[in-house]
Amino acid sequence: MARRTKTVLEENISEDDLFVLLSEPGLVQDSPSLGHHLLMEKRMILHYLRLIEHEMPKLVAYRQPFIPPNSKETPIYVKEVHYQGEDHPALPKRSIVVAVDDLPLKDAAAVHKLKLLAGPRWTPNPPKDAGVMEEEAWGNGYIKISSDTYRNAEMNLKWVSDALDRLVVEANDSKDTFSDLPVDMRHVYAKVRKAKKGDHLRNRPLRPVSVADFPKEWLPAVQS
Predict the structure, then answer these.
(1) CA–CA separation, 204 vs 134, rounded Å?
(2) pLDDT tens digits, one per residue of 191-214
(3) What is d(CA 192, CA 76) in angstroms, rounded to the nearest whole number?
């Protein structure tokens, strides 16, 4: 029996047809992995564009007017730090800021005693990260209490809340008002000097020199 020297495909078609078949590109060519990744991103973008086009207008039914927070209704500002799902030691920490004028203090002696008991936790101006409105009057200052002792955030918030309650109770106790002691402002001066923004000059913390301090007699006379 003779040995086959050509394939079945070569026996059925001519050499010219075989050359054309081998030289033509395939009709179906799969994309590489990078191409499939780009297509997946395009599909994802198209999915969110469809949500914006068809689903977002439905949220108008849940629209509510923005009402700025009122310190009389919600006097305590609670601060927490979030790292977008990442684990961080500062996640359980909680801080509260409250104006002294919003606390239930019975008289001016209690306000003075509260400032003494709070120590460096009391400042005449609100902390920058407290969320207090800029146009709000400072009054008798603000108190900030923080805690990261416990591993649970709710426990830290409960501790600072209880500490504020104990502080108010002690301030209202009239057994000893400490009226002969001045309020310690060293922590305020130290913070102002460290910032070096001009407030430390001429011993005027929290009130730097401005145009309002310009002598009026130096101003030129206004000609009518």
Answers:
(1) 20
(2) 887 877 766 566 666 666 667 777
(3) 25
